[in-house]
Known about the structure:
Layout: H1 2-8, H2 14-27, E1 51-53, E2 60-62, H3 67-72, E3 77-78, E4 82-86, H4 94-107, E5 111-116, H5 121-126, E6 129-132, H6 135-144, H7 151-157, E7 181-187, H8 190-195, E8 198-202, H9 203-206, H10 217-235, E9 251-255, H11 278-291, E10 295-301, H12 309-318, E11 321-327, E12 344-350, E13 367-371, E14 376-380, H13 389-409, H14 411-414
Parallel strand pairs: 4-10, 4-11, 5-8, 5-9, 9-10
Antiparallel strand pairs: 1-2, 2-3, 6-7, 11-12, 12-13, 13-14
Amino acid sequence: MAAAATCGAGTLSSECVASEAGQSRTSSFQRRGKASGAPGGGPRLLSIAGTRPSVRNGQLLVSTGLPALDQLLGGGLAVGTLLLIEEDKYNIYSPLLFKYFLAEGIVNGHTLLVASAKENPANILQELPAPLLDDNGKKELEDVHSAKPPEADANMKIAWRYQLQPRMEVGPVLSSRFGHYYDVSRRIPQELLESSNWHGFFLPEHTPPGLKGEPCFLSCGYMKLLQFFQNIIYTEGFDGANPQKKQKNILRIGIQNLGSPLWGDDICCKENSDNHHRLTKFLYILRGLLRSSLSACIITMPAQLVQNKAITTRVRNLSDTVVGLESFIGSERETNPLYKDYHGLIHIRKIPRLNNLTCDESDVKDLAFKLKRKLFTIERLHLPPDLSDTVGRSSRQDLAPSTTLLGTGCSGMTGGKKRLDF
Length: 422
């Protein structure tokens, strides 16, 4: 009783420590049973083929089909999130990222849901790149990257400020089992397509003919697409509501050219559109479906065609991850010798902050992409130094007109046609 009174008064004594130690022997630690999946009886992380938990926030990740892009996004695309691909000017390279995402789902046995207003989803799946799964295929892909200069020569050719920056893995990494590599020169085997589970939404087939041309066609098209998504998620158990379904799987959703005039949207035709809120409402509802299901979504959108840039800002805010592609085709960079080794730039505009105050952002900022014969690669943008011969000649040619104008404008002070040298 004295010991109990002493403990109750809050005074620390040997009897109190001994009594608390005796109680802790029986109640502090419990053996982990079969029902508890994590230490301490916490929830067990899902084990699904083609997924892995993030080492930073524990979020379940899937591969985008491009390991270099996974590295830039902090390890992959989080399940329950939306990836927005802002298409390049002529929509040449953005379909490749779209097909990589779908091909990765087929290889891992995920369920696909493909929506398009331009092309039949069955035709899109027929054009997916072939995976490189065996060692022979990886060695063949390594031969593409074998023509690299020695390390000493590379240090001499690139500018000094790039030598201290972290490197990116652009070729196959043999030790990595998350994500696969694909050969864009070959098509995916037909037996993989036949054994896969996929659903297609082709807008002309799901829209009644009587609604075409009416003002409600746009909203009805988006509503049909949302109802299609909801039906697949709940009927096939991707919402987790069916406890009897032991084998979990991932639903990969791909939407092509969303917001384009092919979907009946007029945001690409008018600056002050009367229906500019329909796309944002669609994305808001779609995010709710993604958050409550085992699904990941990728959307390609012609952002350069949207007349009102405020709509582009709203769409980016409603997307979890935003990646923009800038092609050199039709621009002055196409003939610029500085960018002769690349086909365009890639911009990581937004990375989600999942269970963290900060995002897992890569240190690489200057990114460029190029399409080889077999591979679409993302690399660090290496510009030649200013002292090289090619850049020196081009710089003198570019500066010649401006030098003439400066010479004529400052003739009174410089005394004629002397060339200004800074």
